[in-house]
Design brief:
By secondary structure, the protein is an alpha+beta fold. It has two domains: about 60 residues, Alpha-Beta Plaits (2-Layer Sandwich); about 150 residues, Leucyl/phenylalanyl-tRNA-protein transferase, C-terminal domain (Aminopeptidase), CATH 3.40.630. Helices cover about 30% and strands about 25% of the residues. It has a seven-stranded mixed β-sheet, with helices on both faces. The protein has a four-stranded mixed β-sheet with strand order 1-2-4-3, covered by helices on one side. β7 and β8 form a beta hairpin. The chain is globular, with a radius of gyration of 17 Å.
Length: about 240
Amino acid sequence: MFMLNPHSADFRFPPVDFASPEGLLAIGGDLRAERLLEAYRHGIFPWYNEGQPILWWSPDPRAVLFPKKLRVSRSLKKTLRANPFKVSLDTRFREVIQACALPRKKHGAGGTWITQEMLEAYCRLHEQGYAHSVESWAGDRLVGGLYGVALGGVFFGESMFSRASNASKVAFVYLVRQLSAWGYTLIDCQVPSAHLESLGAEEIRRRDFLALLDKALLLPDRKGRWHFDSNLTVLNSE
């Protein structure tokens, strides 16, 4: 297993082919913005629990969603037409990641993989214009959302939360429609889940993911605070 020096200015990672069968590639290092961005550019992401060293992963296969293949169920279309939530971009990044960091009931009384160290690192990425949040509002109450990192034509989804039925799904649909309108070609979902599969996520081989990633990174970064296009179409004729 590769050990990363947290004091080094060399942010390079070993080739992902050296990852374990579970996808674990390296241990240690730090969460400086330069290292995080280097990781994402090579299909690597941090994922670890409180009390563990930083663990860096590149799983095979990889869960992705192609924006043009977004799947909106009949019930979700009905929710979108009812328009129960106001959806915004980059207005409450810290609140969104804090909500994502709260323990989930389905995981019992355990902790969260979004440690305080992780939270602060992604807030710094947000301040630098690389990390973004989507918020669903019921009146003035934040009821759902998600956050992730954007580089080139790729959005790397990190986590989502929901305090009202379909609030995170609605936020996700808005985001995917906007990314598609901006020419993004790939959404990295990292590992599969039934929730994401219901929205059209699929698994592909890591080598195929890396080829798509390299191509998408040729597109310019869209840094800074994001806003939805005023003419964004959320409910396509499907």
